[in-house]
Specification:
332 residues, alpha/beta, five-stranded mixed beta sheet, 9 helices, binds coenzyme A
Length: 332
């Protein structure tokens, strides 16, 4: 024995509340179709998107994250000073360092909380929930704010017809803390770096600096990602239900990453979700906001269906890496 102290924490955790901040502007399909030789009809049919939100030039991911986090903490009814962990999932902060999370922690009154940014693309928020749950139960933190924050419009090429019409700007946040009963199931998470080329940035900043490439933007092999999402992610979703010890018929809500409405519909069909399960369809008016998409969709769902409070929701994120994460949560 060394006399060394090692921490343990509470047995269970849960989500206390959500917060949301969407880009100020609703951008309809018509505004984007010119440079990609597309149409409002094509985008609606292939993706379910009617408008997406995009932020003003003067608004950045830090502003969006701060607004979302403030709402989540206020709704949770905890003192911001009690937040001792801030995790921000993002792929679009144009500054490599300092992190978004440290600045947000300070702005919301949680200074000196532990704070770090994390890149797991569209799975980032679900990764963050898995981390917050594990860290709190390990005694490394007590109250965590997990935020997905993106200003994707800064890394979009308006002439790229593989992706430009999908992306939006926003931030969603969740407060995670101790619980008397189980509120976050074990995550099924992982990666497949052999498919790293399927979606991601098209150039490096070094190539840009050296004049060898234009400003780096997101691009994807749409059909490859689509097939992977529909076939492989349904298996991950089923495994998450199994690990949680629940059936699809137990779900009050299903909150998948808002990548494409056709992917959402295909998931729902393959999982054989009952009519009673409410399915998040935030993509229609928000677009795909990567790490922010699940918490934004969760926030909207709870606003439109407050009766879901206390029910079970399956959430699943997947994207560039490729990476994925899914878990079942009790809705706040
Ligand atoms: C991007 C996506 C909407 C494209 O839809 P799709 O049905 O796969 O479309 P395809 O690329 O197979 O192209 C089908 C046709 O539409 C055309 N097309 C492709 N992009 C187009 C666009 N933006 N506008 C108009 N037509 C387009 C193609 O040229 C093709 O025409 P053809 O049939 O005459 O050859 C879809 O693949 C998708 O959503 N993928 C997954 C996205 C995702 O989950 N990303 C995760 C990272 S966040």
């Amino acid at each position: 024995m060394t006399g060394l102290t090692q921490a343990t924490g509470p047995a269970y955790t849960r989500i206390y509340a959500y917060g949301a901040a969407r880009g100020e502007n609703a951008v309809p399909n018509e505004d984007l179709v010119g440079p990609i030789d597309s149409s409002d009809e094509w985008i609606r049919q292939r993706t379910g998107i009617v408008t997406r939100v995009r932020a003003d030039a003067g608004t950045d991911a830090i502003d969006l994250a701060t607004e979302a986090a403030k709402e989540a903490v206020a709704t949770a009814g905890i003192d911001p000073a009690d937040v001792d962990l801030v995790i921000v999932a993002t792929i679009s902060n144009p500054k490599q360092t300092p992190s978004v999370s440290a600045i947000v922690a300070d702005r919301i009154g949680a200074n000196p909380a532990a704070a770090y940014d994390m890149n797991a693309a569209c799975a980032g928020y679900a990764y963050g929930i898995a981390q917050a749950d594990a860290l709190i139960r390990a005694g490394a933190a007590r109250y965590a704010v997990v935020i997905g924050a993106e200003k994707l419009s800064d890394i979009v090429d308006p002439t790229d017809r593989s992706i430009s019409f999908l992306l939006g700007d926003g931030a969603g946040a969740a407060v995670v803390g101790p619980s008397d009963t189980p509120g976050i199931s074990p995550a099924v998470w992982g990666s497949d770096g052999s498919k790293a080329d399927a979606v991601g940035m098209n150039h490096t900043l070094v190539d840009f600096r050296d004049g060898k490439a234009p400003w780096p933007t997101l691009r994807q092999e749409g059909p490859t990602v689509f097939r992977w999402a529909v076939w492989e992610m349904v298996k991950v979703a089923r495994e998450a239900l199994e690990k949680a010890g629940v059936e699809a018929s137990d779900l009050a809500a299903f909150i998948p990453h808002q990548a494409n409405m056709r992917i959402v519909d295909e998931f729902a069909k393959q999982l054989k979700l009952p009519e009673s399960t409410v399915i998040a369809r935030d993509i229609e008016t928000t677009g795909n906001t990567s790490a922010a998409s699940i918490p934004l969709a969760s926030h909207r769902l709870m606003q439109e269906h407050p009766e879901l409070s206390g029910g079970l929701a399956l959430q699943i994120g997947f994207g560039a890496g490729l990476v994925f994460a899914a878990q079942v949560v009790v809705l706040p």
